[in-house]
Amino acid sequence: MEKSFSFSSYHFSAASQKQRDKDLESSSSIRGGPQWKSAGGEEELAAFFHDHDTILQVSEEVDGFLETSATTPPLLHVPDCVHRLTKILDSMVYRYNTGKSKLGKDAEDDDLFLAVVDRISKISAILSTFPCDPSVLDKTTFSLEKAMSFLEKHLCTILQDPKSSTTTTTPTSSNHGSFRSGSGSESKPKPPKKSSSFGSLTQVHDAALCSPFDLVNLSDPPIIPTLSSHQDQDQDTSFPAFSPEKVSLMNKIATSMIAAGYQTECCVAFASFRRIAFKTALQEFGYVSVGMEEIHKMQWEMLEGEIATWNNAVRHCITVLFNGEKKLYASVFPNQQSISQNLLSDLARAVIIHFLNFAQGVVLTLLTVEKLFKFLDMYETLRDVVEIAIADGSYLERCRKELAHEIATTKLRIAEATMAMFRDLENSVKGDNDRVPVPNGAIHPLTRYVMNYLEYACEYKDTLEQVLRQCLHDDYHSCRYYSPIRKIELEEDDGTPKNSALAIQLMTIMDLLSLNLEYKAMLYKDFALRSVFLMNNGRYIVQKVKGCKDLHQCMGDNWCRKRQSGLKLHHKDYRTETWSKVLNCLSTDGLQGNTSSVLSPRANKDKKPKQEVKDKFKRFNSTFEDIYKTQSSWVVSDEQLKSELRASIAALVIPAYRSFYGRFKHHLNSSRHVDKYIKYHPEDIEALIEELFDGGTSKRKS
Fold first, then answer.
1. Residue pair 688/700 in contact by the 8 Å Cβ criterion
2. % of the chain with per-residue pLDDT over 70
3. What is the pLDDT of residue 164?
4. Considering only 270-284, 472-486, 616-630, which range has the smallest mean pLDDT?
5. Hey, which of 172, 224, 507, 522 has its CA 20 to 30 A from 330?
6. Coil, helix or strand at residue 131
7. Which residue(s) pair with 635 in the sheet?
8. Structure pTM?
9. 593 or 191, which is more confident
10. DSSP assigned state of 13
């Protein structure tokens, strides 16, 4: 099958038409054709033979001759009515060519002219079997050829511009075949040339050094432009923009040419101009043909715009333009169904192959993870629009198998590219070994990117499931794409294997992300900050999964419960690492064996127990202030997690401090500079805890 396609592959032109006319004129003397000028002037004869009564009378005589010839042996003598009808046809063609008459202006004149053409065609066929004077056959054939040349030229004029009849020009011009809307507008609203792209993974490393509050919208899912319904409706009513009168005239011309044996000329002219019109309609819609070399040279930002336009153009072409063409062909060739279907099949095949060439060219470009969704858009267009049209379209019977094979091949290449991009994502996640920790334990940009990516991937859940199954073996245990760590989790609660190839793929990426986050947590020297980092990222992942129905369905409730259990362990580790130091400061174990020594009357005489209480308060103040100073700048993005952490800290610290404060504050009231030791009331501690994890935005009052 040819892989290149030009909308103007039929090389029909006005130049060739003019040359054909010259050839006809030059051959007239050779064939013994009529020399009207030497016979007293072509105009006079044309005026005489244009009389309707004369034409009808001659036509009746010719009909009698045709009827007699069909039932009796051929005569050696050709009756005079044949010569006269030949002259009548020449005069009619002359009047049309000089503008004295206009085809399509008067239906009665048109029918009369085409009836004469039909009779001359039949006469020519009968004379070819007669042992008569060859010059008679030459004259009749020559007149018929001139009439066919005129009809062909007029057919091209109508096809060239549905709204008006103009001089035929070369159909390869980009200005030809344009279709205007019913309102007279010369341009169509174009679909968006560019849509938002999913961000690149290369942005992640730059984002890691940003403020955590600048990372909220990193790699948010892109917005895909959709073709408005009114645009399709508008073009549906205007393509092809031929009036019923023009369609009727084209039908008459085509019927006459086919009956006269000029089917090839008729079909070539019709197909040539319809291809140009089709190309122009797509250009007005916003689609411009792009070659393989251009595709490979394009930057992704430009190419993704071309892909979006391609998707809209393919859908519009299949659902609107092809339907319009089908109606036109059926109206022009109502009694020649095979011709109609063959012409439409050739056009549809050429256009679809052209679209497939673009898709295959895109697949051959450098594959990166951010291109995945545009590739899936193309896959869906081929599956949901083109494939169905080929299966259902009777006019594509001749090329159905060929196109089905080409579409299947293109879909497979897109599917393989999709798998390659998933492998690229896995390798990027696994290989992201940046040694610069995110400030203050915030959510890592890699986490945001991957989760937004997977969330958006679930918008294509059914398509991805189909693509992955097309590329992967159903037996996941032997599949080379998946890590052994997935083997246990690939089973449902009852031990049966999961059926979703997409779920397996998503879990694999999740595992790689978790391993990478554990590695990144080790970059923090503060063990408590490691726990906060893991809580932040773990909570973000779980919330993303729960917030996306399809993603949650793929991952399952068991997966979410396990992740939440892991978050609780990190929470526990954080509390133990940080606040056990504070609780140690409030312990009464070091106060002379028990607290009674401090509370006894002798304590006023013994300075040592009181000093130990002072030291306890001082250590508490110092430890708490260090924690506050450090952790008030830490970031917990999730408000619920932040609230849970603060509540957990308060439940641990406030009761212990309130108890210690209540038992020992009165025994320091007599001390000088008591505020030096008892700096905080329990309510103050509680208020300061509420300022933790705000990323340094809270300001402690002096």
1. yes
2. 72
3. 54
4. 472-486
5. 172
6. coil
7. 694
8. 0.76
9. 593
10. -
Q: Is 533:521 a contact under the CB 8 Å cutoff?
A: yes
Q: If you search the block for the tokens 């000028």, which residue do you land on?
A: 37
CB count within 10 Å of CB 401 equals 11
pLDDT 10s digits, 556-581? 999 999 999 999 999 999 999 999 99
Q: Residue 694 corresponds to which tokens in the numbers above?
A: 């705000």
Report residue 408 as tokens: 């299947």
Average pLDDT over residues 117-146: 83
Token duo for residue 351: 């256009």
- SS3 state at 694: strand
- What is the rounded CA–CA span in Å between residue 116 and residue 59? 7
**Beta-carbon count within 10 A of 24 CB:** 17
| The token pair that represents 171 in the structure block | 């159909």
694 - beta bridge partners? 635
DSSP string, 472-495: S-S-GGG-TTS-GGGTTTTB-TTS
Lowest mean pLDDT among 52-66, 408-422, 620-634, 647-661: 52-66
Among 480, 504, 482, 478, residue whose Cα is nearest residue 492: 504
pLDDT in tens, 233-278: 444 456 687 899 999 999 999 999 999 999 999 999 999 999 999 8
- Helix crossing, 42-49 with 52-71: angle to 10°? 80
Distance of CA 319 to the CA centre of its chain: 16
Tokens read off for 345: 């099949």
Rounded CA gap, 235 and 244, in Å?
17
Tokens representing residue 32 in the block: 């013994």
Between CA 424 and CA 417 the distance in angstroms is: 10
| Cβ atoms < 10 Å from Cβ of 695 | 18
CA atoms of 664 and 603, how far apart (whole Å) = 12
* Residue 689 contacts residue 650 (beta carbons within 8 Å): yes
- HEC sequence for 132-190: CCHHHHHHHHHHHHHHHHHHHHHHHHHHHCCCCCCCCCCCCCCCCCCCCCCCCCCCCCC
Torsion sign over Cα 96, 101, 103, 109:
negative
State the DSSP string of 306-359: HHHHHHHHHHHIIIIIHHHHHHHHHHHSTT-HHHHHHHHHHHHHHHHHHHHHHH
Which of 191, 132, 186 has its CA nearest to residue 377?
191
CB 536, CB 635: distance < 8 Å: yes
Measured CA to CA in angstroms, residue 252 lies from 94, 152, 165, 626 at distances of: 20, 12, 16, 96
Q: What is the DSSP string of 33-44?
A: ---TGGGT-HHH
pLDDT at position 77: 73
Higher confidence at residue 52 or residue 534? 534
Residue 487 confidence (pLDDT): 43
